[in-house]
Design goal:
Mean pLDDT: 96
Structural class: mainly alpha
Oligomer: single chain
Strand content: 5-15%
Radius of gyration: 18 Å
Order of helices and strands: EHEEHHHHHH
Distance between the termini: 16 Å
Number of helices: 7
Largest sheet: 3 strands, antiparallel
Helix content: 55-70%
């Protein structure tokens, strides 16, 4: 959960839809599963399931794994950006710096199945969109997001219900 700076009610339907679209793209990219969410005029709640990282990363291992990883980047990045990454990988490998190529790929892998990375990047990307769309500058969010570890069972149902009813109570 995260609030806008000062609790200002900045989000109308256009902003909420832009946030939702970005949230779903970021979730697919990072591997988290959105269970439920609420986007309000001045804050959002997201209940996510973070998969086991090692299991998620298996899809990018072995023969063809790098190609699958580069294809996965298209969930978030342009064809031109991905072409640049491929060119940089080819350049460093041609120079005999295979470890550097692996480090480049690891910068993407480390962002998968990480709640902090998911929310941080979601907030950063949405802030850039919001500020550009509204011709403004500066911070949009009050502080780092707040999170609570929720186990399966009654606590999960209670949290989902709280989030789902948030717009009704507002």
């Amino acid at each position: 959960m995260s609030r806008t700076a000062g609790g200002e009610k900045l989000f109308g339907e256009t902003e909420k839809e832009a946030f939702r679209r970005l949230m779903w793209r970021m979730a697919r990219f990072s591997g988290v599963e959105v269970l439920t969410y609420a986007v309000m005029a001045n804050h959002f709640h997201i209940l996510v399931k973070v998969p086991e990282r090692a299991r998620f990363l298996k899809r990018f291992e072995g023969e063809g794994g790098e190609a699958k990883l580069l294809e996965h980047l298209s969930l978030l990045y342009s064809k031109a950006y991905i072409a640049g990454v491929k060119a940089e990988l080819a350049r460093v490998r041609a120079a005999g710096r295979g470890a550097e190529a692996e480090a480049i790929l690891e910068t993407f892998r480390k962002r998968f199945c990480d709640l902090s990375c998911f929310v941080k990047e979601l907030k950063e990307r949405f802030s850039r969109w919001f500020n550009k769309h509204h011709e403004r500058r500066g911070t949009l969010w009050m502080e780092r997001f707040k999170s609570v570890l929720v186990e399966d069972g009654e606590a999960l149902r209670t949290m989902a219900l709280y989030i789902d009813l948030n717009p009704v109570r507002a």
